[in-house]
Amino acid sequence: MRTLIVLAATALLLSACASNPAEDPVQIKLTDMDTRLGRVERVVSNQSLVDLSRRLDVLEAQLREQRGAVEVLQNSDEVAVKQQRAMYSDLDKRIAALENGLRPPAPGADSGAGSGSPPPPGSAADAGASGAAGATTAVAPPVVAGAESGGGAAAPLSDRTAYARAFDTLKRGNYSEAVGAFQGFMKDYPGSGLLDNAQYWIGEAYYVTRDFDHAAQAFRAVGERWPTSRKAPDAMLKLGYTQIELKHLTEARATLSQVAVRYPDTDAAHLAQERLQKLPPEER
Q1: Domains of the chain, residue spans
Q2: Angle at Cα 27 formed by Cα 25 and Cα 29, nearest 5°?
Q3: Which stretches in the chain have pLDDT values below 50?
Q4: Theoretical Cys-Cys bridge with 191: which of 79, 137, 185, 276, CB 3.0 to 4.6 Å?
Q5: Is-contact 273 263, C-beta < 8 A?
Q6: Which residues, 6+ apart, have CB-to-CB distance to 27 below 8 Å?
Q7: H-assigned helices in 189-228
Q8: Residue from 215, 214, 258, 211 nearest 113 by CA
Q9: For the segment 20-66, what is each residue's pLDDT rounded down to a tens digit?
C-alpha cells in the first residue's frame, strides 16, 4: 500500500513539472529568441536610421560623380600638356628645317600644324601657296625708311624679302614682334601671294603665347579669306585646337568635324579625327 502511494505522488510531481511552461527549456529558448527579434524590429523600424541610410546613399552617389568629374579634368589636363609639348616640338622641327633650306617634316598627332608647313621663305612653292593666285602679284613695295647710301635711296624690298624677315623674327621666338611684322607685311603688300601664309603664322604666334582669343580670330580669317589655300586645312585644325583651349567644346567638335568634310584625305583631317576621339563625351 505504501508503495502505491509513493508511486502516485511521483507521477503527480512529474505531471506538474511538465505542465509548467516557465520551466520548459524549449519554451525558455523560444521566449528569448522572440525578445531578441522584437529588439531588432524596433531598431530597423526606427525612422532616423532609415533617413540616415538614405542620406548615406545620396552622399555615395555624389562622391562617385565627383570622382568621375575629377578623372575627366585630369585627362583633359594631360591631353593639353601633351598637345602643347608636341606643338613646341613641331615648331622647333619646322624652324630647323627652314634654316636648313628643307621642307619641314609632317607634324605628329596634336602638333601645332596639320598638312603642309611652308617651304623656305622666298621659294617658288612658298610664293605660290595662296589659293587666290599662283604667282606673287607685282606691287610697288615700300622703300626702307632711312636706308640711304651716298645720297640715294636703297632698293625697295620685295614681298618675299619682307615676308622672310617677318618669318625670321618668328623663328627667333620674338612672337609679339613677329605678329607686328606679319601684320605690317600684309598692309604693305596687299597683293602678295603670301598673305595667307602670313595670316596663318600670326595665328601660330598668338597660339604659342596662349593668346587663344586672337589666335582663333587669326585662324578663322585664313579659311574665310583664302578657303582654297593650302594653309586652310591647317588653320581650321588649329582653330579647333584653340576652341578646346577656350573650353568651347561644342564649337571645337563642330570645327574638327568640318576639317574632314571640307579637306578629306589630308593630314589635317586625320589629326582632327584623332583629336575628336580624345575629347570627353558630350553631355546630353
Answers
A1: 83-102+114-136+159-278
A2: 70
A3: 102-152, 284
A4: 137
A5: no
A6: 21
A7: 195-208, 212-225
A8: 215
A9: 555 667 677 777 777 877 777 676 666 566 667 677 777 877 777 67
Non-local (6+) Cβ contacts of 21 within 8 A are: 27
Residue 151's region, left for phi above 0, alpha for psi from -120 to 50, else beta, is: left
Buried b (16+ CB within 10 A) or exposed e, 92-109: ebbbebbeeeebbeebee
Taking each helix axis as running N to C, give the angle between helix 212-225 and helix 195-208, from 0 to 180 degrees, rounded to the nearest 10: 160
Q: Name the nearest CA neighbour of 76 among 284, 213, 260, 275.
A: 275
Cell readout for 34 is 522572440
Its pTM surpasses 0.70:
no
Return d(Cα 255, Cα 273) in angstroms, integer.
11
Q: By C-alpha distance, which of 124, 140, 130, 98 is closest to 194?
A: 130
Q: Three cell numbers at 76?
A: 583633359
Interatomic CA distance for residues 142 and 121, integer angstroms = 19
